[in-house]
Each structure stands twice: as C-alpha cells, then as structure tokens.
Amino acid sequence: MSNENRSLAIFPGMFDPVTHGHLDIIQRASCLYDRLIVAIGDNPLKDEVFTSSERREMVVEHTSNLKNVEVQTYSGLTVEFARAVGARVILRGIRDTVDLHAELEIATANRVMGDVETVFLMTSGPHALTSSTLIRQIVEIGHYDHDRLARLVPVGVAKRLEQRLRHDRS
Fold first, then answer.
1. Catalytic residue of the set 52, 56, 132, 160
2. Which of 22, 35, 56, 92 is catalytic?
3. Going from the N-terminus, what domains does the chain have, and what CATH number goes with each?
4. Of the residues 83, 88, 95, 136, which is catalytic?
5. pLDDT in tens, 30-51
C-alpha cells in the first residue's frame, strides 16, 4: 500500500440519523487524517428510518465545510470497503465500555482478515451516551422539546426524523 493511503481513514456507520456525536468524531478525525471517508453502510440486523441516499445527503449537508471529508455509501463488510478504497485505518467512536468490548472483537477480526487497523476515538462529554436508536425512540414515542433535541442532532435532521417517524405512525 502506498504511503499516501496511510493518511486515509474511513469512519463507518449507519448514521440513521447522523448525530452531533457523529459530527464531533468526523470533525476531530478530519484534523488527524489527510483524507476521511464517512462510509455509510447498512446493518441487516437493524431497521432503517432513512435510505442510504437520504443518510448520505444529511451527512454531506453537515460536513461540506470539511474539505478533506468525503461521504460514500457501501454494502457488505466494512473491512472489504476499507481495502477497496485503499484505507489502512477504520475509525470508530467509543461511548463507553460496552462499545469498546463489542468493537475490540471486530477490530481484531479486521486486522487479521484485512490487514486494516482500527483506531478508537472517545466521544466528547456531551455526546458520550447519545445513540441514533435513542434519538429515534425519543422522536417516535415521546413528547420532546425541539431545543433540547437540537442538542443531540442538527435541527434539520430533527425535522426530517419527526416528519418520517410521526408521519409513518399516523
């Protein structure tokens, strides 16, 4: 692998929806790598609220100011995508020890199977326990304050979530 690809990392996830926690990791990683690909994938074990193209659109909207960040969709194994684009690093955000435990097994397999390293970034304090699943549940089930929800996701994302989840429920 060429030296130029040593500074390429991918940050994979479903981003369903993209949160301030995701955006924080993306912004911080963009300072660590010459190129960062936000890789939007699918997880057959999870139901999606937004299509991969809708998720890509939301991530692009909120990362367009970061010139070394690109957003791509993919299917299949993340390690295969990393190798296909020439990345030697998979970046993962870690919220807590539960995340770390689950990610260690995957990181080991990725290194053995694909010769790709995993780098963990701890999420910043205000985003430490925020998950897309939790945010979807808040919007779908609860009554919430828009100002408070905007602390977890960008306002435009919150509006799209509300439209999708509340409309589907009616």
1. 132
2. 22
3. 3-125 (3.40.50.620)
4. 95
5. 999 999 999 999 988 888 999 9
